[in-house]
Amino acid sequence: MSFPFIEHVVWLHRDAAEWAARARWRGAPVWHAQCQGTPLAACAELLEQAPRGRVKFLDRATVLLGFPHVHYLMLPWQPEVYSPQDWQGLAEAMFSRQANIDAEHWQVQVADSPFGQPRLAVATPRELLLDLRELFKLNRLPLVTCTPLLTAVAQQYWRHLPDDCVVAVPEAGSLSCVYRHLGIIDQVCVIPTQPGSTLSDNLFTADLLVERHAPATLVVSNAPAEHRLGPVHPWLEEAPS
After folding, report:
1. In angstroms, what is the C-alpha Rg of the chain?
2. At how many degrees (to 10) do helices 126-138 and 39-49 cross?
3. Taking phi first (over 0 means left), then psi (-120 to 50 degrees means alpha), and beta for anything else, what does residue 17 get?
4. Which of 7, 14, 48, 72 is placed for a possible disulfide with 188 were both Cys, Cβ 3.0 to 4.6 Å?
5. So which domain of life are we looking at (predicted)?
6. CA distance 150 to 65
7. What is the pLDDT of residues 73-109, one digit of tens each?
8. What is the CATH number of domain 151-236?
């Protein structure tokens, strides 16, 4: 690829990384590769293989953080909580109490939401984020953002979702779910899964844990699947066999 600018999308799993790259013009071919290993080791190896533009520092990369690199939590509406700082403190306290997550070592972020609605909070390990930014900086590939997988999926497909549904995102060794009720995010759930387990069984487990059962199920997967909504990212979609 000789185009001056190339965009990169990286999906981090528990013990692998998946990478796609494409020049910034419509119809450009997509370069796609996967690598097993720890997130940093897999990223480092794929960085050596990934195509780069003629002007490297103009390239851009986005990292999608999958299981187990993100923890999610729904904060119920609290009428006595007003400022973003108060919501931040509430999220950090709930993460500490429910998941033993220390804000000193985890970056906690709270999404905005309209008055009266619950808010989604996410926690990502600070050390991993720092190491990723250093790795990309060392290779002169600007890292635009590290986005939690469910956040990216919700942003991509939100306008296409029915008001009441569950969006299921299977990964190797996990299932991540976003429950939508009356047009808003009502609950999230991420569970580890066993090799050979079925999506329906894992979704049943998630439903039990969050005490939800949506009337419609939509699956976000890079491979063909029943009730499939689409891929995690268009460039990561598996090629037809």
Report:
1. 18
2. 20
3. beta
4. 72
5. Bacteria
6. 9
7. 999 999 888 888 999 999 999 999 999 999 999 999 9
8. 3.30.420.40
Contacts of 14 (CB under 8 A, 6+ apart): 66, 67, 68, 171, 172, 173, 174
Query: pLDDT for 160-204, tens place per residue?
Result: 999 999 999 999 899 999 999 999 999 999 999 999 999 999 999
**Residue matched to tokens 């780069």:** 52
Joined tokens for residue 157: 């497909």
pLDDT tens figures, 18-65: 999 998 777 788 999 999 999 999 999 999 999 998 888 889 999 999
3-state secondary structure of 64: strand
Each residue of 96-155: pLDDT tens digit?
A: 999 999 999 999 999 988 888 999 999 999 999 999 999 999 999 999 999 999 999 999
> What are the two backbone dihedrals, phi and then psi, of residue 127, each rounded to the nearest 5 degrees?
-65, -45
Quickly tell me which residue has 């600007």 as its tokens: 142
The strand pairing partners of 162, in sequence order, are none
Break the chain into its structural domains and give their ranges: 151-236
Q: What phi, psi does 235 have (nearest 5°)?
A: -75, -15
Q: Side chain identity at 66, as an amino acid letter?
A: G
**Residue length of the chain:** 241
Q: Could you give the 3-state DSSP secondary structure of residue 116?
A: coil
